[in-house]
Design a protein that fits this description.
CATH superfamily of chain A: Response regulator
Shape of chain B: rod-shaped
Radius of gyration of chain A: 13 Å
Largest sheet of chain B: 6 strands, antiparallel
Oligomer: heterodimer
Order of helices and strands of chain A: EHEHEHEHEH
CATH superfamily of the largest domain in chain B: PAS domain
CATH architecture of the largest domain in chain B: 2-Layer Sandwich
Strand content of chain A: 15-25%
Strand order of the largest sheet of chain A: 2-1-3-4-5
Distance between the termini of chain B: 62 Å
CATH architecture of chain A: 3-Layer(aba) Sandwich
CATH class of the largest domain in chain B: Alpha Beta
Shape of chain A: globular
Number of strands of chain A: 5
Order of helices and strands of chain B: HHHHHEEHEEEEHEEEEHHEHEEHEEHHEE
Number of strands of chain B: 17
CATH topology of the largest domain in chain B: Beta-Lactamase
Structural class of chain B: alpha+beta
Helix content of chain B: 40-55%
Number of helices of chain A: 5
Radius of gyration of chain B: 59 Å
Largest sheet of chain A: 5 strands, parallel
Chain lengths: ~120, ~575
């Protein structure tokens, strides 16, 4: 099975690096970006299957990244990570095509199952 | 007390002593002011009518005296006239010769005496003033009256009534003389009778007088003619002058040196030289008839009592209204203070949760990575197992923290409020479904008093159910082991609001704790059993749905939570 390509966008480097490493240990191919520009660059470069997107990203608003990604590839599945209680943006995200949102701190097994589900959905779609 | 009185300067000082409670003091002030305002006119009316009535009575009394004096005067006039007419009749019926005969005169005297009282003697006097015949207790035959004033007067006037004089017996008398003209002979003779004054004084005493009053006769010179009780003896001069005489009776007031008011009434007699005088000192009108006085007193007392009752009622109502309004205002302020306190505490809590949550996520990932690495390594040392154990306990702690931060964030976030129409009773039954087993197991009595005609609610069903679950759970936790537990759930609808009340007969919440139950991290449950966030979050949810959550509780008796949800929820 081809490894799932995951793009993790989070400004919290410590969090992102640890999570990326854990996902890689679970056989995912993970790239991390800590701001909007970086995220867009990596997105174009690596064409990920699933994007894990934190809402509050410096440089570019999480929702902006989301719409840019969706514009570029409408079939891409995005999972939202959130450490804050900003429900308005979660709602907007859901409306803009986010598949699911996950509250931090995350449970790794829950996350992997959601990533897998997202990938399956993308392949079907 | 002495010191207090010494320090008093103003009535309000008295109020401040009598009532430190401002409402009580206000009440006293209102009562006093109202009472003064309403009782002053009453007193004025009562006093005025009292004196008015007294003056009417006085006037009445004066006219009564006047009337009595006039009556007595007429009686006296009649008395004297009767005697004068009698003598005239005798003088005309008999001749001088007949009457000069002592036997005939005695006969006439006896008959006359039988007819008129008070007759003392009778005599016949010739033109020379010599008493020719006399019948009476004295030996006066042959007495010469020619040089006496009355003889001249009767000669001129034909009739003469004398002043009172002391007779030979030292008893007061008066005399009546009538002249009989003998024109053929060019001479005349005089018939003279003496009358006891006692008869006259009987008339005066026949007046209906009090024991301070006096009635007597005086002559025109002011010499007392009949016995007086207080104003001197017979033939003494009256100590004060009488005002000029008028036709009929005159009544006027004399104030003497001792300031005692005397009503003086007098009337001149017609055929005699006398004036009837009545000195009235008793003043029955001063003693206003008891009935009137009693009635006035009774009416006044009743009015005062009614007035005071009404005034007190009014003051009570007024002050109570003010007090209630004040209390409502204070309650509203306290409630809004409480609400804003909870809101700011909520913001603080969610702020902290935000800040804690990201480091917590990092801890979680780092620990997770450590665990992953350890599990992936070939190392079989003891310390590996120990590390994994330690990491797991980090996970446990993170998980506990996450529960709290997620709940707090859940509260502070404006949750995804999905409004839908639902039936509150169904929602309650559904929630109870989760608790069915526990209720059965613990043998708890559950009373459902659900209104059947409940309108459907447009609100967030999930969140309402979350609140209901929380409150039901609290009720279950509050029930005691030793007592049969009862939970009553009641729904009612009132004014576009659905009320759900949940009462238990559990341990209740003491008053001092009741205030704090909606605050975050406040719990009365055992350590580890509750996070202290349930009611805090429920409060936030209900407020957000435009409703209200209320609690009543009494320690050891039980607690009642009431949720009010508007039927058309206007989410903030």
């Amino acid at each position: 099975m081809i490894r799932t390509k995951v793009l993790l966008v989070d400004d919290e480097v410590e969090f992102a690096s640890a999570l990326a490493e854990r996902l890689q240990m679970r056989n995912y191919e993970v790239r991390t970006a800590s701001n909007g520009l970086e995220a867009m660059a990596l997105f174009h470069e690596s064409t990920p299957d699933v994007v894990l997107l934190d809402l509050k990203i410096p440089g570019m608003d999480g929702l902006e990244i989301l719409s840019n990604i969706k514009k570029f590839d409408p079939t891409i599945e995005v999972l939202m990570l959130t450490g804050h209680g900003d429900v308005a943006s979660v709602q907007k995200g859901m409306q803009s095509g986010v598949l699911e949102y996950i509250m931090k701190p995350i449970d790794i097994d829950e996350l992997t199952s959601k990533i897998d589900r997202a990938r399956k959905k993308k392949e079907k779609g | 007390m002495k010191n207090i009185l010494k320090d008093l300067r103003h009535p309000r000082d008295l109020f401040s002593i009598s009532a430190t409670d401002p409402y009580k003091s206000l009440k006293i002030r209102v009562i006093l002011l109202d009472a003064i305002l309403s009782l002053i006119p009453l007193f004025i009316v009562v006093t005025t009518s009292y004196f008015w009535f007294q003056s009417i009575l006085k006037e009445d009394y004066r006219s009564q005296i006047k009337w009595q004096i006039e009556n007595t005067k007429q009686s006296l006039d009649f008395f004297i006239e009767e005697r004068v007419s009698g003598l005239r009749f005798i003088a005309s019926a008999f001749t001088y010769e007949q009457l000069s005969d002592r036997k005939t005169l005695a006969n006439v005297f006896l008959k006359f005496k039988r007819e008129v009282s008070g007759l003392v003697d009778i005599g016949i006097i010739d033109a020379n003033g010599i008493q020719q015949a006399y019948v009476g207790p004295y030996k006066l035959e042959g007495k010469d009256y020619s040089n006496q004033d009355w003889f001249d007067e009767v000669t001129v006037k034909n009739v003469y009534v004398s002043d009172v004089f002391m007779g030979y017996r030292k008893l007061p008398h008066f005399a009546i003389a009538v002249k009989r003209e003998l024109p053929e002979q060019g001479t005349f003779w005089i018939l003279r009778a003496t009358i006891d004054v006692e008869t006259l004084s009987k008339f005066a005493s026949a007046m209906n007088l009090g024991n301070k009053d006096d009635a007597f006769l005086i002559n025109k010179e002011g010499v007392i003619q009949t016995p007086s009780r207080f104003h001197g003896n017979v033939l003494e001069k009256l100590s004060f002058p009488l005002p000029g005489s008028q036709q009929g009776a005159t009544v006027q007031e004399i104030t003497d040196s001792s300031d005692a008011c005397t009503i003086c009434g007098y009337a001149e007699l017609k055929h005699s030289p006398w004036v009837l005088v009545a000195m009235i000192q008793s003043a029955p009108y001063l003693k206003i008839p008891r009935i009137f006085k009693n009635e006035l007193f009774f009416i006044t007392i009743i009015s005062i009592i009614v007035g005071i009752i009404v005034v007190t009622r009014i003051a009570n109502t007024l002050v109570n209204r003010i007090q209630e309004a004040e209390k409502e205002r204070e309650d509203a302020i306290a409630q809004s203070e409480h609400a804003s306190k909870l809101a700011s505490v909520g913001r603080l809590a969610s702020g902290v949760a935000h800040e804690i949550n990201n480091p917590l996520a990092i801890i979680n990932e780092k620990a997770g990575l450590m665990k992953d690495i350890l599990e992936a390594s070939e190392d079989q040392s003891k310390s590996r197992e120990k590390f994994i154990g330690l990491i797991n306990s980090i996970f446990d702690s993170v998980s506990r923290c996450r529960t709290i931060t997620h709940r707090l964030l859940g509260f502070s976030r404006r949750m995804d409020t999905a409004h839908e129409l639902f039936d509150m009773n169904d929602a309650i039954r559904e929630v109870l479904g989760f608790l069915e087993k526990e209720i059965l197991f613990r043998n708890i009595r559950l009373d459902l008093v659900l209104a059947e005609d409940l309108p459907r609610v447009m609100s967030d069903r999930g969140q309402v159910q979350q609140v209901l679950l929380n409150i039901f759970n609290n009720a279950l936790d509050a029930l005691l082991e030793e007592k049969e537990g009862t939970i009553t759930i009641k729904t009612t609808v009132n004014d576009q609001k659905i009320k759900v009340s949940v009462s238990d007969n559990g341990h209740g919440i003491p008053k001092d704790k009741l205030k704090k139950i909606f605050e975050p991290f406040y719990t009365t449950k055992e350590k580890g059993k509750g996070t202290g966030l349930g009611l805090f979050i429920s409060y936030g949810i209900i407020k957000r749905l435009g409703g209200n959550i209320l609690v009543e509780s009494e320690a050891t008796k039980g607690t009642k939570f009431t949720i009010e949800i508007p039927t058309t929820s206007t989410s903030e």
